[in-house]
């Protein structure tokens, strides 16, 4: 158990130093070269850290949670799943509650879906016709990221330009540029 204590202390320290360095203003984009599978109805990928901030928070939480649980003298096969779940839960809370609150405080509130209807956005990941994805909207020299669904259930590739049709909360309904004309052509040919 002494090794477990040392590992947790090192992980917590590395994570805390990493967060401190990033809070000083260093912006680092790290891509590990893999994409996470997306859930059809539950966004499981939101629980898994995907940025350097997420990795450092994950490491720090595992380290400090391990130090908190160390006095309980639990076997490692109980501790490891608890530590992993605690890291994922903290990342989820940070991504869904703390980060939007910080962005609202620091850079202003995201535009409401009604304000951006008809605006052109860029897909920042592949959006499957039966699933969801994310788009980036540039407005007033700021970039905003929204979850979205394809209106006509067509696949949208990363980097493709789309038009915002409507939205609901943080979820937008988008279509490809000029997709309505393709749909109307198909309907006319079927008639």
For the structure shown, list the relevant keywords.
OB fold (Dihydrolipoamide Acetyltransferase, E2P), 191 residues, single chain, 2 domains, 18% strand, 4 helices, 44% helix
What does this structure look like?
The protein has 191 residues and is α+β, with helices and mostly antiparallel strands. It has 2 domains: 2-107, no CATH class; 113-190, Nucleic acid-binding proteins (OB fold (Dihydrolipoamide Acetyltransferase, E2P), Beta Barrel). The protein is 44% helix and 18% strand. It contains 4 helices and 5 strands; from the N terminus they run αααβββββα. The chain has helices at residues 2-23, 52-69, 76-107, 179-190, and strands at residues 120-123, 133-139, 142-150, 161-168, 171-176. The protein has a 5-stranded mixed barrel. A hairpin with a 2-residue loop joins strand 2 (133-139) and strand 3. Helix 1 (2-23) packs antiparallel against helix 2. The chain starts with a helix and ends with a helix. 19% of the residues are buried. Mean pLDDT is 77; it is low at 26-34.
